[in-house]
Structure formats: C-alpha cells, structure tokens
Design a protein that fits this description.
This protein has 75 residues and is of the alpha/beta class. The protein is built from two helices and five strands, in the order E-E-E-H-E-H-E. It has a five-stranded mixed beta sheet with strand order 3-2-1-4-5, with helices on one face. Helix 1 crosses helix 2. The protein is globular, with a radius of gyration of 12 Å. The chain starts with a strand and ends in a 7-residue tail after the last strand.
C-alpha cells in the first residue's frame, strides 16, 4: 500500500484519490481486516514536511504499524 501526499491537501492510496477528510476512514477500511499493517508514504516534492507528518499520524491512527519512506527517485 502506498500513500502519496499531494499538493493542496490531496492524497492518493495506490493511485486512488482521497481527500484529507476521508483519509482516516479509507485507511481504516483498508487496514482493519489486514494482519500486516505496513504502508509506504511518498511525498510530492512540492509539499511541506508537516503535510507528510500529518499523513503518517493519520495512518498510525488507522492502525498502521510500520511506515516506510521510499528513497527519492534520481533522474
């Protein structure tokens, strides 16, 4: 599962758009039935650090136990 933090308080879970208000409920619906509660968080280069931390906090509140951050892509 990959959570993308996008500009303008927008998010995407596995490329599916999710609003800021719907983020917690969507994550809970994904993770409640799963035994493995692992997720990767990918921040858009234009978002601020605080927005990424917010998304990680929401994920923890939804029961995610392990959060990975993929390395930055180099060109």
């Amino acid at each position: 599962i990959v959570l993308e933090v996008l500009p303008g308080d927008q998010y995407a879970i596995n490329k599916q758009p999710v609003t800021k208000d719907g983020l917690l409920s969507r994550l809970k619906s994904i993770y409640d039935p799963r035994p493995d509660k692992i997720m990767f968080v990918k921040g858009d280069p234009t978002v601020i650090y605080q927005d990424v931390i917010f998304a990680m906090d929401v994920a923890r509140g939804a029961g995610v136990k392990v959060i990975g951050v993929p390395p930055k892509e180099t060109k």
